[in-house]
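Example 3.2
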Amino acid sequence: MPDDQQLLDQARRVREAAHAPYSKFRVGAAVLDEQGRVHLGCNVENAAYPLGSCAEPNAIAAMVAAGGKRIARIAIVGGAGEPVACLPCGGCRQRISEFADDRTRIIVLDDDGNPVEHTVAAVLPGAFRLDP
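Structure, written as C-alpha cells:
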C-alpha cells in the first residue's frame, strides 16, 4: 500500500496531464480506496465555464468506476507553476465526504512543500449527509 509521499508523487505526476489552458492552475488527485488501489484524476477546464471539472471528483469517479466504495486517503497537488498549498474547494470537500469516513485522510502540501494531513471533519465541519 502506498505511503503518503508515494500518493503525493502520483498526484503530482497526474497533475501534469491537467487541461488548464484558462487558469493555468493544474491539480492532480490520487485516491487510495478501501482495497488499497490508487485512482487518479486531474482538473479539466472548459471554455464554457463552469463545465470544467476538478481533479478530486475525477479521481473519485475513477474509483467508483473501478468498484471502489470508500476513500481511505486522498492526496492533492496543485499550482500554476511549482506545487503550492492546495486544499480542495468547497464542492470537492463535499464530494470527498460522500465517500469518506472518520479514518479518511486528506494529504496536501504546506507552504514549504511538506506533506500535511487533514481529516474530512477538519476541512468540512458539519458535512451534509443523507443517512438512508
